[in-house]
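Handout for the seminar on molecular recognition.
Each group receives one record of this type.
Step one: identify the two inputs.
Step two: read the structure output and locate the region that could contact 4-O-methyl-alpha-D-glucopyranuronic acid.
Step three: write two sentences on what you found, then compare them with the reference statements printed after the record.
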Amino acid sequence: MRSLLWLAVVGLAVAEDGLAAWLRYARVPSASRHLGKLPSAVVTLNATKGYPVHTAGQELVDGIGGLFGKKLTVAKSKPKGTTATVGTVSAYVDKNPSAAKGLPDLVEDGFYLKISKGNVLILGQNERGALYGAFHYLSVIAQGNVSDFTLTSNPDAPVRWVNQWDNMQDGGTHGSVERGYGGDSIFFWDGHIREDLTRAGQYARLLASIGINAVVANNVNANASILTPENMDGLARIADVFRPYGVQLGVSLNFAAPQLLGGLDTFDPLDKTVVNWWQGIADNLYKRIPDMAGYLVKANSEGQPGPMTYNRTLADGANLFARTLQPHGGIILFRAFVYDHRSLNQTLDWKADRANAAVDYFDGLDDKFEDNVVIQIKYGPIDFQVREPVSPLFTHLRRTGATVELQITQEYLGQQAHVVYLAPMWKELLDFDLRVDNKPSTLKSIVSGKRFGQKLTGYAGVVNVGTNTTWLGSHLAMSNLYAYGKLAWDPEQTSTGILKEWTTLTFGHDKLVHDVITKISMESWPAYEDYSGNLGIQTLTDILLGHYGPNPGSQDGNPWGQWTRADNDTIGMDRTVWNGTGFAGQYPPEIAAMYENIETTPDNLLLWFHHVPYTQKLKSGKTVIQHFYDAHYKGSSTAQTFVTLWEKLKGRIDKERYEHVLFRLIYQAGHSLVWRDSVNQFYFNKSGIPDELGRVGNHKYRIEAEKMELKGYKSYRVSPFEAASGYHCVVTETNSTVGTATTKLKVPSGKYDLAVNYYDMALGNSTWELFVDRKLVGKWKGDLEYELGRAPSPYIDGQTAARKTFRGVRVKKGSELKVVGRPDGLEPAPIDYISVLPEGTVD
Ligand code: GCV
């Protein structure tokens, strides 16, 4: 009983599945001491059920009830005692005309808070703003701050959208959510909108609490069938569950829908029948969803249809939709991610460059777009890589507004199976000064509209939550969604400040919990960059398959244009004007000059802009190749520390989330070594230049499986070669043969950590057992494809390579070490190597 009470006090009693994310409203420490500083009743002004002010009242009741155990009543007019009054400015001024003078100026969605001795005034410029104000107040008190304050908060930019890449149907190459790692779509199933949209409503609640005002629910690779009458009705149901949270619905369109769905023989944007068809679509959508946000369009990119099919400009394409939206007040986000993945030729053309495409296509169109067109630009010129320069297109649009597209789902950055806190990367990008006209021109000042004065600007975040209760597949990844909303509202906030808030709301107030999460999170992006692609070479994931595991060779020799141009002596893309693709020249002169010159190009983008020998000296004094080697050792060794750091939290947070995170951090630690060895081995083989510290290719604790005594197992040459230690692994001889790999240990007697590197393909669930002197050390299953959520793969490669470690195992000199592998389905229980590591050693 006593321990139960103690747990209740520290708020750990209940296991948590992550569904409530940062809106848990868990009891704050010493809650009862603060009751006098809280309101006793909620007064909602202009509150209609199903609209944000009403929701705000409900959240205040639930929030204060959960956080402090104080039960509030809801009243329409002022009751006795302290109150929380929430509503729009206009409703408030209607009732209190004399109060108007004292109120600050608010822009759309902005809010004003005044907290004084338990009385709380929450006013929004609109209903949505009032709800934002209520969430903000709740967040402040949830962090234990019940003191008086006054705050005026206006968003930095009007467009703060989320994009989901949800498919109408599961299956195909991308499953239910393209680049989604948190389960199936919460919106669609089997070609239709789900009947049960409970999760969609919960999602809107989370998004509203961080200031997001619209969600595009369907994939930018859009299926035309989203526009059938039945699916339009379904979209209206989604809009209905969003509306109480002030979240508007946006829809992705397939440019060829007039032909694919409408039966026309053309989708030429200047053809009258096409224009009329689209007008009919807009009218029909707005009949059902009068407050629809608008459209998102990907055109002429990666095989998608677009206006260029008919030799029309991208502006012709965007304006077609813009005009149909104008009578309804909608806007269109038109993506700048336009390139032809079929025609780029690396071998024949030194100057070919996918990075050039956006500016090449959009230059000259700035004054051609309708006023309700916004150009949505990925932060970098290629595709959400671990390090990219800011896209120069932001400097070419001065009349037309832009949104910066950030990616919360970690497509190239570990797919939520690796912790990578992205706020520091986004901050670097947003703070980058593009020096337009030699004047301060940070990216954040451009996307807020302040630099060039456009009205419609802002942020678009690709989120891709799914039905998993953790939303994104990992509890820690949710700090990225939180940070996205916070930065879109106010890019001046710091990465650590945002993290602190998120950690308190998600995991509570324990200082050690904060210290650990801060350390892991703040070290995670640098570590990931270190053990993936360095010096601006891009992430180096396999770009032809799942974009997940290491495969440096996959970048080159194909028309996708994410080239490294690595050969035996040199590496990097020459993007200079004098000798390369000319990309550097797309920037304003000061920035162009910086990138043009190898001396002034920062090391971390060296290989993005220059083609150099592996022996090129960096500003650090190291050569490029030695930097690669060192960085991979450094980054992967940082990833090992995440496990031990997290283990300090045992018993300090609920078991469910503790175990969930621990499992993934252990996996990440192992996979970071796969990254390290693959990338290092690949460039060592290419360059022939040994690691000065003699680590690359030398692994003294390893026993290669193919060199063990094999029964039922056979040696198998892995492709790409660098994905296996010694280029080989073992696989069972048939799908039903049990394999054993045995060896006699030569190490001195003692305790060791035994690490088995194996491959967990999505073709079955093999089992492995590890024995020392016939005693079972451990047994595991090849089921990571269900556990991790990252892209499944049927291959033996860097994507499926994984490590299982058993710590502190006692062995004797001459002990027999044996692995038994039982294949399942088409997965032949592959093993790469076993490391017998003196305790605490990593290799
Ligand atoms: C939705 C990358 C991704 C694709 C994505 C595309 C885009 O190429 O790999 O999955 O498609 O970007 O942003 O349109």
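Reference statements: Residues 170 and 176 are 4 Å apart (CA to CA). Residues 1-13 have pLDDT under 50 and may be disordered.
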